[in-house]
Amino acid sequence: MKKINIFCFGFGQVAKNFIKKIKSENLNINLTVTSREDSKKNNFYNIDYESFQFSENSFDERLIKNLRSSDHILISIAPVKGEDIVIKNFQNNFNNSEIKWITYLSATSVYGNHNGEWVDENSDTKPTATNGIDRLNAEKSWLNFAEKKNLPLQVLRLSGIYSNQNNILARLKTGNTKIIDKKNQFFSRIHVEDIANVLFKSLQNFKSKEIYNISDDKPTSSEELILHGLKLLNIKKPEIADLSTIESEMVKNFYKDSKKVNNKKMKEFFNYKLKYPTYIEGLNYIHNNTI
Questions:
Q1: Residue 3 near residue 30 (C-beta atoms within 8 A)
Q2: Domains and their CATH numbers in the chain
């Protein structure tokens, strides 16, 4: 593959792991990213790149030149006040006929509550929490925009992300984690390295206007996840709390939805075998190698 020009709107853990994966495969890239911080030149895994300031109401206009010369564009910025700020600010700058790949990172919160049943890419999207509603609106904006401009776009709906740094083991060690008592509550998860690997696979295996669930093989309850973490850490079980006693609106919204996310389309299309098929392999690796 020839040198590729990658533009990352947002440079958080998913984008960084994607670039790290590309570097590990010895591909040559030109990298540009955006950040809320001031514009600067930087280095990541021996890749020199430019980071341009971009927030809801302002951006460094110098980024437009780099955007217009990019052939691969990753959008990992969450909607702001229900609106996708990339389309809002740059819809007139996606006229580069060399664009080969645009990926919008969405979330499985777009499905809303399915009472613990399985969902796939054809399931009803009926979000109730604000983040799910906003994500679905942003998805639709990107799909409509891509259709209008004839742009090559894929949408990845990410399940709950964990990594070697951010995971239930790290939270349990703080002593602030509680088990929420809520029956028939299922969540799906995905290790950030598996997201990066799928993104890398999609560089050469891409179909426009498609949506994929990015999830591991084992949806489970939060309690089951915590219990496995406790076993690994050999610490006592935290207190059990009723959801009605929780003050955090974010946590309450998290527990509104119960569903099991089907990943069959992802695995078949990208011919991908998960590095961490379930939270068990993921947490065991983290415990054995990073703690």
A1: yes
A2: 4-163+188-217+260-276 (3.40.50.720)
Is residue 101 classed as helix, strand or coil in its secondary structure? strand
Other beta carbons within 10 angstroms of residue 15's beta carbon come to 25
| Phi and psi, residue 139, nearest 5° | -55, -50
**CA 254/CA 245 separation, integer angstroms:** 15
The CA distances from residue 93 to 63, 71, 83, 88, 152, in Å, are 11, 13, 18, 11, 15
| Tokens 């939060």, located at residue | 222
Whole-model pTM: value is 0.96
CA–CA separation, 147 vs 139, rounded Å?
A: 12
Question: pLDDT digit string (tens) for 112-154?
Answer: 999 999 999 999 999 988 899 999 999 999 999 999 999 999 9
